[in-house]
Amino acid sequence: MSSLLKKTLTSEPFLALLYRFIRAYGATFRLEVKNEKPWMDYLQQGGNVLICTWHQQFFAAIRYFKTYEQYTPPLMISKSMDGSIIAGVARRTGWNPVLGSSSRGGAEALKGMIDSFRLSRLAGHVVDGPRGPAGKIKAGVIRLAHAADAVIVPFYTDADRAWFFNSWDNFLLPKPFSRVTLTYGDMIRFNPTTDPDEFEGQRARLEGIMTPGLKGKLAAL
To answer: Which residue segments constitute the domains of the chain, with CATH numbers given?
Structure first.
């Protein structure tokens, strides 16, 4: 990809246009949101909430997640061209991108996430991003929940009509005017631990809870 094209795709005019397109596209969905109230009540009572999803499923939530902009929730996004584009959309949605990932700038990004999360009390995390492997939850989500004394709330996207990309995550894109459901799981709390086996057990437990929510080809994992 040429440097000119990269510069164009990450420019403010392009990102503004892309954001408006995503908003318009999302407005066509017949959207239903399930089980949001329990964790919202917890948040409004002073608790900290970490919303988590699979990379496969975040697109359908972008328009709806504008409703959380009063909290300016942090969201870890990779230091890449794709990440720059996603970060531009996230900012316009009212979220606070923290650049870094497990493969690049992870420690610094995790610290930034923790600092921002303690102020906002609401954060988002893509558990297998930015490059997978699909269906494998990375350790950062557990470390983040421990550090911020937060409950983890999984969320899942489903659509009655959707395209699935031939990508590492079998990315889910609901078709226009499809019926889309955003479902929040129950709140999960993991006690902080310094024991490696207990920590791995928490990660594996979350993976076991969230894996049935995968769609398309990944549903068989």
So the answer is: 3-211+214-218 (3.40.1130.10)
